[in-house]
């Protein structure tokens, strides 16, 4: 493949790079850009690399470094740089461009798992700002700004001591159009034990990850099995509730609450006290791990608990009391 075919589509705004800057990394960027425009890709790569080393870590610089490598014929380094960009700034516009380049350079890429690394933007300790947004694939619509705000609002409603548990435990939280936009495979497989829905059909999913924190996922749209098309987004109130529910799973994954014998005993008592109708209505929460997530979501979220969760919590009083004490909620 000829590199020149790729380069024209990569022109993105360079407004982040200040042309008049006197500071050295900014000057390197400006000179790097000038060299890049002249087609001196080897020299521009050197300058962008220098700027990165001097702390100019931003998606535009990484993108142009990748392009410079590509222009100078080093496909391996170009790919590595594009992957770094997607990993470090997954929600940036430049990451979307980098993904296009990766797919052109590596036709097998679509068959691989797309998993952003756990590295998160270090500039703030606000967990909501670390929300990773996965760009759409397969012609899907990108996650809407409204949904991004809803998930951030849900995160902001959680008390700081619970957020600290997640942060200390290296939890990550990711928002994707659907599971299939993040992982090319497995969307039509069952979402879990005893789960009738597929991974593409659930609005959230939290994965336990060995050696690092739980991988909390929110999905904006359902992908019915057997098609790649996505439905309309879930209601914002549902996305809000699911965000809290999945945060509940994240906390449970770190603190191992739903496997605690005292939790299990309280939950078993609540289940045995349910009326026949309630047992039917709340059958999903007769599984300890699901009851745990939903109750934590209800307790950790805003004072005004959504009516569905409030009703559920009323039916699990002993489990709720145990979690309330255990988590100081
Ligand atoms: Zn769940």
Name a few traits of the molecule.
329 residues; binds zinc ion; single chain; 5% strand; mainly alpha; Serine Threonine Protein Phosphatase 5, Tetratricopeptide repeat; 3 domains; 4 strands; disordered N terminus; 4-stranded mixed beta sheet; elongated
Describe this structure in words.
- The chain has helices at residues 3-6, 24-38, 41-53, 59-71, 75-88, 93-105, 145-156, 160-168, 179-182, 236-255, 261-273, 276-281, 288-300, 307-315, 317-327, and strands at residues 132-133, 172-176, 204-207, 215-219.
- With 329 residues, it is mostly helical.
- The chain folds into 3 domains: 3-111, Serine Threonine Protein Phosphatase 5, Tetratricopeptide repeat (Alpha Horseshoe); 127-255, no CATH class; 261-327, no CATH class.
- Strands 1-2-4-3 form a 4-stranded mixed β-sheet.
- A hairpin with a 7-residue loop joins β3 and β4.
- The structure holds zinc ion.
- Residues 245, 249, 290, 293 line the site of zinc ion.
């Amino acid at each position: 493949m000829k590199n020149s075919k790729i380069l024209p589509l990569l022109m993105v705004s360079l407004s982040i790079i200040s042309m008049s800057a006197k500071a050295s990394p900014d000057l390197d960027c400006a000179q790097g850009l000038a060299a890049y425009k002249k087609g001196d890709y080897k020299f521009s790569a050197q300058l962008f690399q220098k700027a990165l080393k001097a702390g100019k870590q931003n998606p535009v610089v990484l993108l142009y470094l990748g392009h410079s490598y590509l222009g100078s014929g080093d496909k391996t380094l170009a790919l590595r740089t594009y992957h770094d960009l997607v990993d470090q700034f997954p929600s940036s516009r430049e990451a979307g461009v980098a993904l296009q380049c990766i797919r052109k350079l590596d036709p097998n890429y679509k068959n691989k798992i797309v998993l952003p690394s756990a590295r998160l933007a270090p500039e703030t300790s606000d967990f909501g700002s670390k929300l990773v947004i996965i760009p759409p694939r397969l012609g899907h619509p990108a996650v809407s700004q409204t949904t991004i705000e809803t998930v951030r609002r849900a995160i902001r409603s959680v008390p700081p001591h619970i957020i600290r548990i997640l942060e200390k435990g290296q939890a990550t939280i990711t928002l994707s159009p659907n599971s299939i936009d993040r992982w090319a495979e497995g969307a039509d497989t069952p979402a879990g034990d005893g789960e009738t829905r597929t991974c593409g059909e659930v609005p959230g999913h939290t994965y336990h990850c060995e050696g690092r924190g739980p991988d909390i996922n929110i999905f904006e749209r359902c992908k019915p099995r057997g098609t790649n098309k996505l439905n309309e987004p879930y209601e914002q109130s549902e996305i809000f509730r699911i965000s809290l529910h999945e945060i509940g799973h994240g906390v449970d994954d770190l603190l191992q609450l739903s496997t605690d014998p005292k939790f299990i005993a309280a939950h078993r008592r609540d289940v045995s006290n349910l009326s026949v109708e309630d047992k039917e209505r709340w059958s999903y929460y007769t599984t300890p791990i699901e009851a745990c997530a939903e109750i934590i979501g209800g307790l950790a979220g805003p004072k005004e608990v959504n009516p569905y969760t409030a009703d559920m919590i009323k039916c699990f009083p002993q489990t709720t009391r145990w979690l309330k004490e255990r988590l100081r909620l």
